[in-house]
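Appendix B. Extra example for self-study. Work through it before the problem class; the solution is given directly after the inputs so you can check yourself.
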Amino acid sequence: MSQEEVGVDLETSLGYLLKEASSALRAAMEEVLRPLGMNVTHYSCLELLAQRPGLSNSELARGAFVTRQTMNVLLKSLERDGYVTRATEAPVGKALPTRLTPAGRRSLEKASAAVRSVELRMLSGLTAPEQSDASRILRSMIHSLRADNEEA
Amino acid sequence: MSQEEVGVDLETSLGYLLKEASSALRAAMEEVLRPLGMNVTHYSCLELLAQRPGLSNSELARGAFVTRQTMNVLLKSLERDGYVTRATEAPVGKALPTRLTPAGRRSLEKASAAVRSVELRMLSGLTAPEQSDASRILRSMIHSLRADNEEA
DNA sequence: TGACTCATGTCAGTATTCTGACATAGCTTG
DNA sequence: CAAGCTATGTCAGAATACTGACATGAGTCA
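Solution. Structure tokens for the complete assembly:
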């Protein structure tokens, strides 16, 4: 276990820890969503629509961190199953606003409660100030990563 | 943008921020690894083998946060391309130790440097104490998420 | 106005990862 | 010792997400 630190040390790397935490969160979410017949992307899409009604396919894709092609496939299945409705004509440009149906809203309610309980579990060992720190630190990481991405 | 907070508020949710940060990190890593003909899982596997030579397929899978079936597919391609070698017989049990070849080690060197630069970029806006906080907070999140996963 | 750029929706094909299943090796336990 | 349990490697098929490509609508600018 003692190596001469050539590259990234997985034991102490914040990048690795970030991936580990994200992976654990995703697994925990999948576990509670599975009994509800949902996966994480599914849930993310509905949650986005609940909080920001009328989002377009591309906007939903960005919010759920998938490509717009992937979101397009998902939206079709959600529309087929009666959870969302999409405008048939674009009010402006090509973007088609999407909205939750009552069925979609009902389905989301249980999922949202389940996900919230997972998030509370995740934060159960942290004090309020630590949670504030976490928020600030994560935002800084995101900002730094994106800033240099755009330069390149 | 002002909703009555029924479920998880995406603007302030630490779960969403975690996903966002992880997604940004992954994208940044993919970007620097692509010119080297590697993806993140690819790199993770080689990095794990560099730091812990002789890991088995299942151990590598856990370390890279994928299933052992997925890692098996990856290992086959890495072996075919001459980056790793796998024992043909299990010294104990069924686990087949895997090791980097010189070619694999050479390939990893550039990738490791690229990934390290991404990680430094991610941390560029944080002080040393903040980085310590981040480490402690992420470990706490991971622990809390896993603890209740096993109970269930 | 006309050319250019950008964002969007969508189709098609590919790549990646997952779940399910089976056989085998080692350990534990009655 | 035999049975049960766990971990591993592997095969097959399904689900998921991606890249590439094309057409269209809106804004910019010479």
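Self-check: The helical segments of chain A are 14-33, 40-51, 57-64, 68-80, 102-122, 128-151. If your reasoning did not lead you there, revisit section 3.
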